[in-house]
Structures are given as structure tokens and as C-alpha cells.
């Protein structure tokens, strides 16, 4: 299902979604709803699979407000887009010729096809590098999927 953003990119600077590590999929889904403004803040792996966000920020800062601000600023500066996370999480053994038939990839391409040219190309480039597919072919697929989604009632 091709997700439509709640807000247009011009309506907000960035919307950061921060949940515990075990809720990353939910954070990705929420961030996608904000279009290219959405970012996902994920606690580091060393906090374990549950990765409590409060523990990371509170314990990592050791009660020092300046340390908390520094930790949070560094984390926010490196927050990936939800599409970047989805591309990184695609099965590594997925064959390039199976990309169009994979439901997650189809939805991903459709959503990317609705993005502006810079964001669209940056995400498609990641996908191209990951699976060895020509960027032009991915652009064409994303455009076709976006247009067919727009044509649906």
C-alpha cells in the first residue's frame, strides 16, 4: 500500500519519531506518514533489543543537561529517513529481478516515486547500489508505480 503523507514537506522542517528500539517498525510507519519531513531516531544497539529510549537519553547524559543536549543533537543529526531504513532492511538475498514483485519493494518504490527529485534520486541510488540495478530502471519503475497509484480511485 502506497502511503500518502499527512503533511507536505513545506509544512514542517523535520518530524522526528523516537520510540524504543523494539518499536522501530512502528516508528518507521509513523515517520513515513510525514513524507520526506519524517525521520526515525533509533536508540543504539548496545541498549539491547528493547533499547529503552528514556534510559539511553537519561543514562547517557548522566543527569547533565549539556550532555543530554549534545547526545540528542548528535542523534538527531544522523536520523535516517524511513525509506533509507526500509532499504537497509530488505532481505540481502533478494534477487534484482524479483524487486518489482516483492510487495514491500513495490510499496517502497511507489512512495519514493511521489517524492521530489532530490529525495527520490537519493533513495533510488541506495536501492540501486544495494541490489546492482540501474538507477534509470528504478526511476522508471517508481514513476510507473506512483502514476498507477494516482490513477486508482
Low-confidence stretches: none
- Succession of helices and strands: EHEHHHHHH
Q: Work out the helix count.
A: 7
- What is the domain tally? 2
Give the strand tally.
2
Coarse morphology:
elongated
What share of residues is helical?
A: 40-55%
End-to-end separation: 13 Å
What strand order characterises the main sheet?
Answer: 1-2
Sheet of most strands: 2 strands, parallel
Strand content: 5-15%
Mean pLDDT: 86
Specify Rg, calculated over alpha carbons.
17 Å
Estimated structural class:
mainly alpha
Describe the model:
It is a single chain. With 153 residues, the protein is mainly alpha-helical. It folds into two domains: 69 residues, no CATH class; 62 residues, no CATH class. The chain is 54% helix and 5% strand. The chain contains seven helices and two strands. Strands 1-2 form a two-stranded parallel ribbon. Strand 1, helix 1 and strand 2 form a beta-alpha-beta unit. Helix 2 packs across helix 3 and helix 4 packs parallel to helix 6. The mean pLDDT is 86.
Amino acid at each position: 500500500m502506497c502511503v500518502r503523507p499527512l503533511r507536505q514537506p513545506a509544512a514542517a522542517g523535520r518530524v522526528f519519531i523516537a520510540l524504543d528500539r523494539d518499536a522501530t517498525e512502528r516508528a518507521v510507519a509513523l515517520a513515513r506518514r510525514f513524507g520526506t519531513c519524517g525521520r526515525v531516531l533509533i536508540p543504539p544497539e548496545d541498549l539491547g533489543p528493547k533499547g529503552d529510549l528514556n534510559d539511553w537519553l537519561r543514562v547517557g547524559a548522566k543527569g547533565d543537561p549539556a550532555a543530554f543536549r549534545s547526545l540528542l543533537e548528535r542523534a538527531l543529526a544522523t536520523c535516517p529517513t524511513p525509506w533509507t531504513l526500509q532499504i537497509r532492511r530488505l532481505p540481502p538475498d533478494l534477487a534484482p529481478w524479483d524487486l518489482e514483485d516483492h510487495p514491500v519493494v513495490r510499496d517502497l518504490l511507489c512512495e519514493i516515486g511521489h517524492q521530489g527529485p532530490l529525495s527520490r534520486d537519493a533513495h533510488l541510488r541506495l536501492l540501486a547500489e544495494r541490489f546492482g540495478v540501474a538507477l534509470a530502471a528504478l526511476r522508471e519503475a517508481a514513476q510507473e508505480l506512483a502514476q498507477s497509484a494516482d490513477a486508482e480511485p
